[in-house]
Amino acid sequence: MSRITAINIRNYKNSGNKFAMVTAYDYTSARLAEAANLPILLVGDSLGMVVMGYESTIPVTMDDMVRHTQMVVRGSKKAHIVSDLPFMTYQESPSIALHNAGRLIQEAGAQSVKMEGGENIAEAISNIASNGIPVMGHLGLTPQYVNALTGYQLQAKTQATASALINDALAVEAAGAYAVVLELIPKDLANIITSKLSIPTIGIGAGPECDGQVQVFHDILGLYSDFVPKHTKQYCDLRSVAIAALEEYSSEVSDGIFPSSNNSFSMPPSEIPVD
Ligand code: KIV
Fold it and tell me: Shortest CA distance to 81 belongs to which of 112, 127, 122?
């Protein structure tokens, strides 16, 4: 079975159907997302927070992304796998950016890479895309720039910053990106960008009119309780289900209920060693 390609995703723009992308960080999350027929799995550097327990995505390394992308690739057959280039792996120079993008494709098995930034990284996007590696852009709230922002807040709220964001979106498209994530921006601005671009916009906290939506796996399944952003929706509360199951397991062990004979193995009496 062949995987969904960046060209397929680009063509979703004119299909009239909105599409969903979800993050996946390992074999099991990829298996679950693929069983639910999600067409695009993002190995997001948000794994730094939800899987590795860091406070931001800044400490995530190339080796982390390669390792987790490999897990997601092994857990899926049909979905398109897009993998984040982490902080400082593409900003230094277009050739370093190409080298690292190449690792995610060749070593890890992703089909495309995602990069945060606009005009400032246009040359890097262009170098990667023109060498046969599809690039997804990421604008608005760009968590890798958190130290230069005032926090994880709504971006581009003024006319000047909104106009700058539109220019960044056009620059990302002109550099050769096949889609762009718009994170935490007013929906009115997302609508303008969506209508100006010929590539799909994928929103997270950017309103319903984007061509697609992306959400963090742990947020929509209710697995991550440290912080629940307004832009997410918990479709279930797996954390409570998991805690209740773990508590039951622990008390059944204390009470001698688990393991039962159903969970145990016997040997023929003749084989039981005599003391
Ligand atoms: O790393 C990530 O999970 C992301 C999404 C929030 C778009 O970049």
Answer: 112
Give per-residue pLDDT as tens, 96-106.
999 999 999 99
Yes or no: say if 245 and 235 are a contact pair by the CB < 8 Å rule.
no
Residue 35 to residue 162: CA distance in whole angstroms: 38
Task: Tell me which of 23, 25, 89, 213 to substitute to probe ligand 1's pocket, judged by most ligand atoms within 8 Å of the beta carbon.
Answer: 23
The token pair at 118 is 């606009």
Q: Is the whole model's pTM more than 0.90, yes or no?
A: yes
Instruction: Please answer whether residues 164 and 133 qualify as being in contact, where contact means their C-beta atoms are separated by less than 8 angstroms.
Output: no
Q: pLDDT tens-digit profile of 44-84?
A: 999 999 999 999 999 999 999 999 999 999 999 999 999 99
Closest to 49 (Cα-Cα) out of 64, 63, 34, 33: 64
Q: Return the residue whose CA atom lies nearest to atom 4 of ligand 1.
A: 44
Is the C-beta atom of 193 inside 6 A of ligand 1?
no
Q: Is 183 a catalytic residue?
A: yes
**Residue 43 contacts residue 23 (beta carbons within 8 Å):** yes
CA–CA–CA angle 78, 62, 4 (5° rounding)? 15
- The tokens describing 209, both together, are 């009119």
Q: Is 181 in the pocket of ligand 1 (CB under 6 A)?
A: yes
Euclidean distance between CA atoms 136 and 41, whole angstroms: 12
Pairing mode of beta strands 80-84, 201-204: unpaired
Quick check: helix, strand or coil at residue 19?
Answer: strand
Question: Ligand 1 centroid vs 195 CA: distance in angstroms?
Answer: 23
Q: How far apart (Å, rounded) are the C-alpha atoms in residues 212 and 209?
A: 8
pLDDT value at residue 1: 67
- Residues facing 204 on adjacent strands: 183
Which residue type sits at 240? S
Coil, helix or strand for 191? helix
